[in-house]
Amino acid sequence: MPRHGATPPRGMARGRGASATLSHDGHNSRLLMMWTHQPPNFSRHDFVMSPAHALPQISDAELLMVLAPSAWDTLQAAVSEGTDLWPILSRALVFTPVQALADQEVIARQQQLQLSIHRHIAGLCGLMSRTQVVLARTSRARHTLTHVELYFKDQYIGRADMWRLCESMVDACVYVGQTVTLAVGIRAKIGRLFIHEHSVMSGYVAPSTLPIFRTESARCSVFVQMSREMWEFDESGEIHYEKALYGFLPDLIRKWDSIGTSHVVSIVLFTRVLYDESEREHLASLPVQRTSSGQLYVDYYKVLLELDSSIHWPSAMRRLKEEFFRFQHDILLQPRGTSSRFGLERQDPETTRGDQAVGGRMLLGRFAQAHEGNVLEAINLLLNSAEKHYIDRDLTITGFSFLLLTAGTGHFFVDKSLLRITTQRMFDLGLSLDLVCLTQMPLHTVPLFRFMSQVPATRSEPKARTDTHPLFVDNARGPSQMCEFMPFWVNGSFYNIEQDRPYWETRFVPRCRMDGLRMTELLGSLQQELSLPYLALPAAPRRGPSASVRERFDEEQFAPANNVSAPPTPTVPYMGSIVPPGVSRVQTPAPPTPRAPSFDGSVHSARSLVLEDLGKTVPTVSESITSLVAASRRGATTGDASRLLLQALGAYAPRAAPQLVEASHTSATRVAAMEDTELDASVAAMAGTSPEVPRVNALNPRVAMSERNALLFRWQNAFIERINQHTVKWWSMTLPACLPLTTRYLPSEHELAHSWHEYPYTVSVHSDTASIMLKRGTSTSPALAMLREMCAQRLAQGFQLVERPVARPGTAPGARDARQFVLRHPTEMLRPGNFADGDPVYLTAMDQVHCISYSRQAGMIRVTRYVKKVPYSTSPISYRCCMWPRWHPGYRPLSVQFHHPDPHAYNWTYLDSIIAGYEDTFIESLRYWRSRFVLVPSEGSPPPMMAGSGDYLSDEEVRLMGMDRLAELFMRAEYYPRGRPRHARDIPLRFLPTTLDPSSSLSDASFVEALAERNDELDRRHAHDPRPRQRESAALSLSAIAEEMRASKRELKIHDRVWHRVLHRRTFTGADLVTWLCRTYSDIHTRDDAVQLGNKLLRAGHMEHTLALHGFLDGHYFYRLAMPNEPSAAVAVATVPDAAATASVAHAPDAEANAHAERCMARTRVQLSRSMLIDVDPERRSSRAEVAVLHHDLAHNAENGFNFQIQWLGATARLIEDLVQSWTRSVERYGLRLVEAPIHQIKDIGLHTPFIAPLSIPLALAPPTPSAFAALVEEARRVQLTRAREPQSDLEAWLLRYVLAPPATQSDRLFEMALVRDYGFVLDQEAQSLYPSHLDVHYSSRPMDFDYTQFVHRSGVAFIQVVGGRDGYLWLNNRMFNARWHTQYKGLGHKHAVPPLNATQVRQSFQRLCADEEALRQFYDRVWQLLAALASTNNGPT
């Protein structure tokens, strides 16, 4: 930061001339009376100014600045004296004249108004209402922000949405604490603002401003390494695990609480246990593995918190403390023999003493030290769950935060292949790790990973590639040596706070910090000695004077030697055991130039000191990549060019030291203000060459590897200022940053030609494109709209826009003068008016580069994909460990694989075809976002509801009406492409009601026939009806309309229907009649008009309700036409007389039709779901197309779950969230609950998230086997065919409808399913084996590969799968539903909202039931007695 006497900012004049310019002359500044207001009261705008008091002739390059009079006087004095201006300018308020003059209505109404400012904004600078302020003109360039931080909470914001949010702020002034909102509902709060390293209260956002997005609602995973050192004492005498329990974790929780974050937190304990060969015989049941040195080991993981959003931290910390004491006991005490220990309960002390007495358990193994632990394995397990982030997308959280707590020093011995795949995956996903060490900083580079690798034996090999680091090369010819790698994706911190006494900054820290580079130049390769005089302290006072004497002594001894000049080209000797190919070894080092050691950098910076000859180094803590990259400049050509370019761009100002701020998602102090180096690389790339970046010893990696520039620059734009190495980077752990949208890394043309594969293709541009991802009718040209959408889709997949220097017009090819280049920002290039023909836009990822350009002459967009050539194996790595998921009784074996990122896995050509309008179907390789929802009947009865006829509806009828309401909502959200208007006469979307389970319904021929008819209708929904509609119902009598109804038997679907085992002959539904009336008569415009006509027909006696309960209603209500010489409807309704009649007429119009349906089913694909495009922005709030794909079930049972999925690529997630919430509120009044559910079966949840596994709940008493009750069930079915028994309980109703009904043939798990049904669960998805094998059943709304039948609780808090037998069930809490409720109700302050059931309490209650043998026996007896009663012929109909 500039100190006294520093150069003022650009645009601020100095001296007397500047003072005269800034006087109150009415032209440059004036005094005004300021008011304050609170929007929307008084005005919706933040600034309101009267034109009469504005400064005249304000240009577009100027802003208006508001200061207090005292601050103005101080500013004038600082300008005159040439002192630092930023203390005053940082608290100035700036705004645009257009912004202040926008509210003309208020200006005209308030005649006394001069200037009014938002109360919060005025408070930032201490300005009070009704006080005088100074209004002055100022340069826009002076207040242009370089970085702006934006915080967001309780919402999912994709990277494409971040880009659009940034574009909305360009050309505007922003303020600390301001809320920025897009029309689509995305909101973010402005945090810190920076102009270079200066923090300001307000500023101007230009296209060059770099946004930093920080989330307050992230998926935070805290990993605690339980190594051997965790139970040892640190240097201050404190046990490490006590420092973690009573120090770091409480501090972290307090930070979260003070900020008000709502992270979803997981806490995992992990360790590696080493075993001797003599213990091998006792480890037969464990997943034992060997290290490269042959050491036996087993890795253990224990989950304490699992994606919890509503944590009670006192109880969580209490459990964490208990686990620290039990951890060694649970792992090191193994059962004797070779029997499996997995799934055994934790042994209590009495059981343990008994085991020891009988020799039941023995002590095996020892905990590994931190440096030989399973750190990389734990990270990769976490990455396995992060890779599928687009599946089961939680729309209330954004981003990941990985935190690893260790008692080590940040130095690890690892496997080379595992380190490489971890590095690739971390950067491919745009993630990083916060490593917190509980020790003091060591005297070596940290974090540092060491591994064994073969390295080239000589330096004579040709330089064919730039990938020369041993980590990224396999099969090198040479001996195996120990190699080092500094991970750029690790953000290191040291928690050194001592709990027993306060921390003071002047305390003595036993660490050696010297400037490694300058000491290398000084000492060279010869052994040197440093001698310092003794410090003579005064004997009397001990406190203040002695401290000042020590500080003065250090400053004198280590002051920079200003009289010694550095050599023009410093020589860096080879100091390590490995020299990468391409870097020549210094054979005869130049004699060192004597020079005193200097410490002109930060006092906390870490440096290296070479004390002996070649190859011997004293390593120290790694410095930031700021210094690494700064030290990489060689020669005067590129350095001068970069400085000249920065001067030409108006961005260069000499500073004392590079300044950076740590970011959450990479090494916080790894990359600094690297404008010079980046622009050197960019300008060199323009000339087709790569900048020369030297390589040095890996033990002191001062310079980044050239081929890994992407690793450094990928996170560069998230840094602002530099922080001390020894401090804990709380900002990164509390408010994780998201991957920056832009970067300046781009390989050179030479590298792209030799080290990358090239895949070009073109996409045609048409003005009449019908793409579902482009909004029609906008003023933006189709080419620009397509180009922007292609960039947005790549940003959503982790790509970054490249900021690159572009040659000025007229610049000669191959020019290296930086003044001939200008820095172009992608956001500026993609704005209307700046879009140029053939101007390429570059986007980069880890190992991919996309170049997109538009050719106006050819009418197409050219896309060139560059994929990095890989000189190493990309085979997956298999891994085995022991995992203890939450709520489980013990450890269980786990086998997973770690896969390298595949750059060819994403089908970019198909994606661009969708954008161009040639395709509209999503495929799996697109990685589209998806969420599944289940609509279930809620607990209890729905609210009473009255039909339009004045009759009260039953619970089932209310829920069926709710399903009709959901169908209307789906139809209302349907997307209509250009050229297809919405018509009121379109066939409405109606779900097919049924009283059977899905698999049983397919055995009903009448249902299959009705399903085929419904599919045909929906296929013809938008087809033009060729029949004329010139007839009007008003011109016909009711009798004539009734006759036409009899003649339209097929259109009205008049046939026999069975509902709850009752046969309704020759009936049609009210919904079918309403649809027929709307499509037949021209004067029936709406469905309400059709309902009125239907009531007239009913009152005239032309039709009747089969049960004579209701008037005419639009829905699934049965009606029949009045026939002469037939009994009334009440008499016509009858039960099936006998079994033979049931077989012939109960489930089909006649036996012949039933047999025909059976023959057709073997050849026909049965489609049980439908798909449709929906517009998630019906209010047209977005400036782009907001289209998603909706897959929904076609049939629905009011007592089961109804499934639908929403899938999207380019839609705004906030709009989807709002749409789902509106659907949820609409169906709640009908006794229905919308539950977000995992897409896959809970049995396979561990395949995607290794730390989560369903809980197995066995049955203490095995249920009766199918062979024992099969005869009883068959007898009950036979008896119930001829009897109509009214159920007396919910359990009896379930038996009658789903077990004993004729189509229901599956009863193998009768008692197990009866138990979950009785406990409040409803059917979600049946096992695939239950569906008829001769049918090709197709669902797009739900997966079909379920191994077991799955149920969902009516409250939505849990899922359960029926395994059967003594194995019982698999249980999984519904994390997504619980997190959603916590965010939407509790987080938004709905104090009167009734919280859902506690999932843990529901599970524990169910576990107690399953573990109670007597309770199970009573339940089995109750079910058996019900079956016996239903099978008895003595009981007549009731």
Automatic annotation (TrEMBL):
Major place of residence: membrane
GO terms, biological process: intracellular signal transduction; negative regulation of TORC1 signaling; positive regulation of autophagy
Domain of life: Eukaryota
SMART domains per record: DEP
Molecular function per GO: GTPase activator activity
Its membrane topology: Peripheral membrane protein
Region spans: Disordered: 1-23
Pfam hit, one: IML1
Subcellular location field: Vacuole membrane
Record GO cellular component, one term: GATOR1 complex
SUPFAM superfamilies given in the database record: Winged helix' DNA-binding domain
Gene3D superfamilies: Winged helix-like DNA-binding domain superfamily/Winged helix DNA-binding domain
Domain DEP: 1048-1123
Family: Belongs to the IML1 family.
Name assigned to this protein: Vacuolar membrane-associated protein IML1
Organism: Malassezia caprae
